Amino acid sequence: MKTIKKFGKTFGRTFGLAALFSATALAGAEAHVTFLDKQATQDSTILATLQLPHGCDGKATTEVRVKLPEGFVFAKPQPKAGWELEVIKGDYQKTYDNHGDKVKTGAVEIRWKNGNLSDDFYDTFVIQGKVSGVEAGTSLAFPVTQMCGDTVQAWDQVAKEGGDAHGLKSPAPLLKVVAGESHGHDHDDMAGMDMSGMAGVAAPAGETVKAGDLEISGGFAKAMLPGQPVGGGFFTVKNNGQTDDRLVSVTSPASGEVQIHEMETKDNVMRMRQLKDGIAIAAGETVKLEPGNLHLMFQKVKTPFKQGDTVPVTLTFEKAGKVDLVLQVLSAQGK
Ligand SMILES: [Cu+2]
Hints:
eleven-stranded mixed β-sheet, binds copper (II) ion, Immunoglobulin-like, single chain, mainly beta, 2 domains
């Protein structure tokens, strides 16, 4: 630490003190800036409570900046005695429904400024907001900048998808989004749809379907929660042949549009990306569509999927052609 301080004094302004300090975060997970409650339920309004366990290498914290990820909306910070509050507003990437109002802008960063929190003390910083339009299993990252006078500590590292966050020196606080309780689906539009007749043209749910060299199995969809606009579908494709194939498109009578998605981490936020070129199914390989990874995303769903239903889909492969499959709707957790 002594060496770093010396470096800071000598080169700080020129070479960036922030970079030096973020590489020397204090050891131990308890020393990180984290949320008190690290889980949030889908489409619920929560109090995201950040814990600041210490200052910057002995110095008192004077400013705390929190960047809010897409999907955490209508945010309001809790004022704190001894701190000024600044709310930076900006555009959301998507439009969110706030009790019937379409909302496109809101708080994107919160700053508590000109405070003085001794390195010897612990404190919390609270933001009320709604988790909206985020798939269960997604971790929302809230990059934090902790400032102690002219010393800056950035808590902004995010593990690669599937990676281990414990290895990070200065990880961004994460909120893991989990599926909420299902309250049944007593929507009026339920009566309008009968999918039992459609199942007859494809193999029964969960069975293995063969098409050329391809073997498709384990098809399921997740039950949709009230208000959830999109549904997820999953299955496994095994290519027993000598030639590569590719899943190019998917259609379903249950949904206006079926997209092929994957989860990715970009700008510190795990989010979904549409795969316009589909999914390669290489010769001899098995490709699994599963929660948190590759998946089908049903847009414009006509009747929300509920547990016990089936969702018929038609998969189109480059070489194997069209394949009918039935997805069994499991619980919202996919079990
Ligand atoms: Cu998706």
